[in-house]
Amino acid sequence: MKSFNITIEHSCPQCGAPAVLEETDRLFFCPYCRVSSFLVEDTFFRYILPNNNPNIISSLYFPYWRFKGTLFSCYLDKTDYRFLDISHQGINSTIFPVSLGFRSQALKLKFAHPGYEGKFIKPELSLDDILCFIEKRFCAKESDIPSVQYFLGETASIIYSPYYLKNGMLWDGVLNKEICTTLPKDLDVNLLKAEKPGWRIGFIPSICPNCGWNLSGKKDSIVLMCKNCDSAWQPRKNKLEPQQQAHSPLLAAGLASESEIDQNSYGRRFSTACSGELQIIDFGHFAGIDTELLFLPFWQIKACVSDIALASYADLIKIANLPKVIQKSWHNMDFKFWIPAFKIRAKHFVRLASQFTLVQPFDEIVKKVPDADMHPVTLPIAEAIESIKIILSDFIKPKKDYFPLLPDIKIGFESYKLLYIPFKKEHFDLIQPKYKISLNKSVLETAGNL
């Protein structure tokens, strides 16, 4: 299947060899010097389209926001999913094109860095402004307002497209053709606010800070594993944060400031990781007896839900209206959400999360890196937490009683773990034999475009 990710030209930070990356790539391995590095950014990645302007110094780089993600809209009788991949002007202008069209997908981009000459126009519209535009264009009408609406699994970046002025006309620096024959007389490009391209891409050596062993992972994974000391590592700006097997006071301290998620009107914070200092979290896997296994990662989240009693397994039986007789011991069994730690199509994401949350697996956790194929972690814990309302709206019953409460419900979390669950590889499907849950292999294969 054709990939619709952005393709970026770059060079190895160690030896300078040329490289081609995809938008979702985080782990970069150089085939020349054989050094692995992890890519990190401060806020958003910034890219530049190819510039064919013969006079580079006179180039004018106009900003465009590029947004890709899934919009969830939960109604009383259904849940709608809409995958979005759009670009929009970073400054409202009637002179420059409104969007980039297919250029971001068809052309190879480069990271914007201080070495580029020309004038970089500073975006006036924020990402929230772009989301307002998306809401007006794609979201439900006032006559059919959803109870819950969230963006999930989003990727946001800024792409600069080159233009230049020649003979009183505006020229496209990509095609090297004029696009505007008549310019307003009062147009003065010197009045446009410029910003210095001081953004740099950070590279972290993929070496375990604990034992010095090489960290392993797929190129799009946001969590790297050390098979020598059985630890997992997640990058944060210029440091690697350990995700080891034991609880630590750092975890409680880090989570205390996020005991209640700071939701905006769109239900999103647009961060690639939980905010806070160095955190240590649990990770492990469930043992599997078959040989042909694929371990899928899940975030096990213990959360507190306001306005609804959902603290124990007995509460889950009631709120989901499951056909079970509640046992006394179930009141003492903590309830936890199980959220896939990988991106897949929306309906399968909700289905897997609901099925495992309703099952509430209580298998023994093996606290070491599994000796089998592991699917990469591509969904950060912050986004998993933000999906809780979506999962909650999927299994609560009767919906007519609970849905009016959803907009005002507050979600907080207490702890979380990264757990790998074994799935048996069949010809077309991945099957979890104990819990009778399956996933078609093609769903994972096509998830690289999300």
Describe the overall structure.
The chain is α+β, with helices and mostly antiparallel strands and 450 residues long. The protein has two domains: 150 residues, no CATH class; 205 residues, no CATH class. The chain has nine helices and 24 strands. The strands form four sheets. Strands 1, 2, 5, 6, 7, 8, 9, 10, 11 and 12 form a ten-stranded mixed beta sheet that branches. α5 packs across α7. The longest helix is centred in the last third of the chain and has 14 residues. It is globular.
TL;DR of this structure?
Helix content is 15%, strand content 33%.
Q: What is the CA-atom radius of gyration, in angstroms? A: 24 Å
Sheet with the most strands? 10 strands, mixed
Oligomer kind: single chain
Low-confidence stretches: 243-279
Number of domains: 2
Kindly state the number of beta strands. Answer: 24
Distance between the termini: 13 Å
* Broad shape: globular
Q: What is the helical fraction, as a range of percent?
A: 10-25%
Mean residue pLDDT: 80
- The number of distinct helices, counting runs of at least 4 residues, comes to 9
The amount of beta strand, in percent, is: 25-35%
Structural class: alpha+beta
